[in-house]
Task: structure prediction
Amino acid sequence: MEQQDSSPFDLRGKTALVTGGSGYLGRAFCASLAAAGARVVVGSRSEQRALNTAADLIKVDVGEHHGVEIDYRDEEVIERGFQVAQERAGTIDILVNNGHILDPRDWKDIDGPGFDQQMRNATGYFLLSRQFRDAAVAHQKPGCVVMLGSMYGMVASYPEVYHEIAPASSAAYQCLKGGILQMVRHLAVYWAKDLIRVNCLSPGPFPNPDGAPSELIARLEKKSPMGRVGFASEIGGPLVFLCSDAGSYVTGHNLVVDGGWTAW
Result:
């Protein structure tokens, strides 16, 4: 067998743009990509939060991490954010569409504008992905897009998990995540000839321990085959696989990291 000079998970020399990079899972994504050697451009609705997150990342061999403003609600801000990312970091090799504008209201309470705002996340994912694809093709370079799905894009939530504790996983959120998964399949097929891989990463129960009620976490744990929720440190490795040469023949795939939740 031919020996490789480096690990297939090595991302040295690559630059990754991660939207929602200052959030709970977003910070874990950025940290794992940086640990694998990638230079990271942190995207956030707040440029200052993005810059602060970038400053906390492990240093890389060449170049620096950066932060930019990207807001999925505004097409002009999406376009400007990607342009600024390129100006500051050069060619972008990896795009992680993780940012999310949340409306927590469930099916009983959400109104039309709230539902539309949830769908706007998918619109933003698409617009930014297309910009990334067009830039990669213009530079005649391969690229990798990872979009964030969810176990709730595959299965319904258990009503009793959220009852009288927190808003249920909303109908709009389920539509959003199911739609993202189908968009991944569609774009993967159309962009394969352009050497652009498009995949979905679907986390299971990864509640933020600093904000989620303890009773909610306990109920989630009871529904998990592994008997616990996920830790943020456990989501970055699967992302690195999808973004690296280790996943070079993987496209149109949904990588589920859910402790067995969807296996029931």
